[in-house]
């Protein structure tokens, strides 16, 4: 999506829960960008720098986010 300069300022004021995301496909469910971003978990969010404990902490968090 491309914005004109005047639209960019307005778009910058939107939060991710105000922007919808609609994937391509026949049986899709429209949701917010915030919900789409929450589908991913990064081990870096748990302080991982190649250490097993932080990576395991990220994996352990997945069920509470609806994954597993």
From TrEMBL:
Domain of life: Bacteria
UniProt cross-references to InterPro entries, sorted A to Z: Pectin_lyas_fold (IPR012334), Pectin_lyase_fold/virulence (IPR011050)
Name of protein: Uncharacterized protein
Origin species: Lysobacter capsici AZ78
């Amino acid at each position: 999506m491309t914005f004109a300069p005047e639209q960019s300022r307005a778009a910058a004021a939107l939060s991710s829960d105000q922007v919808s995301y609609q994937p391509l496909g026949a049986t899709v469910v429209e949701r917010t960008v915030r919900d789409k971003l929450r589908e991913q978990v990064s081990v870096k969010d748990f302080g991982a720098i190649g250490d097993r404990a932080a990576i395991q902490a990220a994996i352990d968090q997945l069920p509470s986010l609806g994954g597993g």
